[in-house]
Amino acid sequence: MKKHISIILTIVLIIFIHHTxxxxxxxxxxxxxxxSSGGISKFINDAPSTNTAINFGSAVGVxxxxxxxxxxxxxxxxxxxNSSEIRLKDTAFVKQMKDSESILFNANFTFKxxxxxxxxxxxxxxxxxxxxxxxxxxxxxxxxFMINLGERSRTSTIVTKTAxxxxxxxxxxxxxxxxxxxxxxxxxKRIVNSKSKLGQIYFGSLEMGHTFVNNxxxxxxxxxxxxxxxxxxxYGIAPITINKESIFVNNSKTDEYIxxxxxxxxxxxNSSYIGIFYLGVKISAVFGVTKYKCKCKLKE
Length: 300
Hints:
By secondary structure, the chain is mainly β. It has one helix at 2-22, and strands at residues 31-45, 50-53, 55-68, 71-88, 91-98, 104-132, 137-164, 176-177, 187-196, 201-212, 226-239, 248-250, 259-261, 273-288.
């Protein structure tokens, strides 16, 4: 992933340098922008025994562009929402317990189809530099410093409980009993909702697109609001402060022990960060005053 990002950044920088050196377009005013974006979102993590699925992301923001000839500096503020599903490989654990007759046995719990659906909301400041060509195509590169407003997780898993006794034959001649609802030996789906907060999120951002201007506006001094459509790629990293609690929680509201799995990534001791991949389309309304130099000759 890091290698791919480096290649993309290099290509965009080459385009930027080329156009800056050879562009002849003069733009003498600044722009105010309002934008909305949407696309695919995916979380990337170094926690073991996991894989992630693509989900949805969106953002809204306002900004300001300062121009120097055809180059610009854009800054503003943005509210962003990202989501993804992180799946955990099947796991199990054994807990020694006593039955209703105070006889010791091993309670065996297996956890299958574990999926942690995570939603992250953050707000921050995007800053980009860019170039706009005479044909109003633009390219920009920059970063975003985002503050996390909250992380919500919904972890679901299928839990099967069996019991192993030392002095009985059991279902498979190994002392294990299963599928006995009156003794709590069942298979159930369990869900744990949780919320927490990440640290600061640092994004790198690439964008390219086109600003649409109709012919009647081409030589006007005061421009009407223009439509800008672009595609973008954001990749952010949020360091994780590890919570050393177990990922297994007791989901019972009584004295019965009913284990489930909670937010896996933020409680996995071997996880140090969460990466946020966001790719999509941005639509902006551009407000500003643009002066064009007309090189036309009047007919005599």
